[in-house]
Amino acid sequence: MIRVNHLLKSVDGNKKKVLRDITVQFGAGEMIGVVGASGSGKSTLLRCLALRERWNRGDYMWNGDKVIEGGGSGSQKYRSRCAYLEQNPSMYPEKTALKNVLIGQAGQTPLLRRLTGMVRSDDYMGAMDELEKYGLLDKAHVKAGKLSGGERQRVAICRALVHGASFLAADEPVIGLDPKSAERVLETLKELCTQQDKIVIAALPLEYAERYCTRIWGLLEGELKLDVSGRRLTPEDKRLIDLA
């Protein structure tokens, strides 16, 4: 279980508040869709929750352990449990899908991965198992630069799993994808929650959030205005977060 208390994130020398007093709790098996107008703070929220941004204020608890207290950054121990999936996943285009899964995200060397204890960089079978599980076995030896957008997203998901993530924050993972590819990516993310008890929080268009997610957060100007479970948003809900 992860609990966030009074998260505040500011930029421009603390002059501009991007996230304002966010307090939430979420746990294993949840797939949460984050919706809101452009500029509402969705990407920043995901990066903060995945411990990729320094907090100006707030507390972060993971199963009762203090990860962030009063602001700051989480330790590598906890960052390694989180994955931040970008709209266009960062990969080595001249390396194969398999090697991208094994090496990890650009800028993080295999040696660093070994030193932090996340996975062995040569865990070939584990990587192949994940690629097969998500329909990518035939792409294992294809260079990442030749993969489609949906395939790159699924490779990024496999990479996160192989490197030990139990919480995945996906930033607009279906933007630019055709409907079939988008559905394949979202079905993959949903299976992680239902079959492996992972946590997935994704910034999504409302129609996909309502279709795939068990819970929806609505953001407006950096404030969490909605937190609803098990239902679609009402017209009043949509007006509240400027999506009407």
Write the SSE topology.
Blueprint: E1 2-11, E2 16-26, E3 31-35, H1 42-49, E4 57-62, E5 65-68, H2 76-79, E6 82-85, H3 97-103, H4 110-115, H5 124-133, H6 149-162, E7 167-171, H7 179-196, E8 199-203, H8 206-212, E9 215-220, E10 223-229, H9 235-240
Parallel strand pairs: 3-8, 3-9, 6-7, 7-8
Antiparallel strand pairs: 1-2, 1-4, 4-5, 9-10
Keywords: ATP-binding, Cell membrane, Membrane, Nucleotide-binding, Translocase, Transport
Pfam families: ABC_tran (PF00005)
Domain ABC transporter: 2-244
For the structure shown, list the relevant keywords:
244 residues, alpha/beta, Rossmann fold, 2 domains, six-stranded mixed β-sheet, 9 helices, ATP-binding cassette domain-containing protein, MetN_ABC_transporter-like, ATP hydrolysis activity, membrane
Q: What ranges have pLDDT less than 50 throughout 5 or more consecutive residues?
A: 106-111, 113-119
Q: What's the β-strand tally?
A: 10
What would CATH call the class of the largest domain?
Alpha Beta
Number of domains: 2
Total DSSP helices: 9
Q: What is the percent of helical residues? A: 25-40%
Q: Give the terminus-to-terminus CA distance.
A: 33 Å
**CATH architecture level-2 label of the largest domain:** 3-Layer(aba) Sandwich
Q: From the helix content, strand content and strand pairing, which structural class follows?
A: alpha/beta
The CATH superfamily of the largest domain is known as P-loop containing nucleotide triphosphate hydrolases
What can be said about the biggest beta sheet?
6 strands, mixed
What share of residues are in beta strands?
25-35%
CATH topology of the largest domain: Rossmann fold
Q: Any idea what the radius of gyration is? A: 18 Å
Average of the residue pLDDT scores: 89
Run of helices and strands: EEEHEEHEHHHHEHEHEEH
- Widest β-sheet, arrangement of strands: 6-7-8-3-9-10
Shape: globular
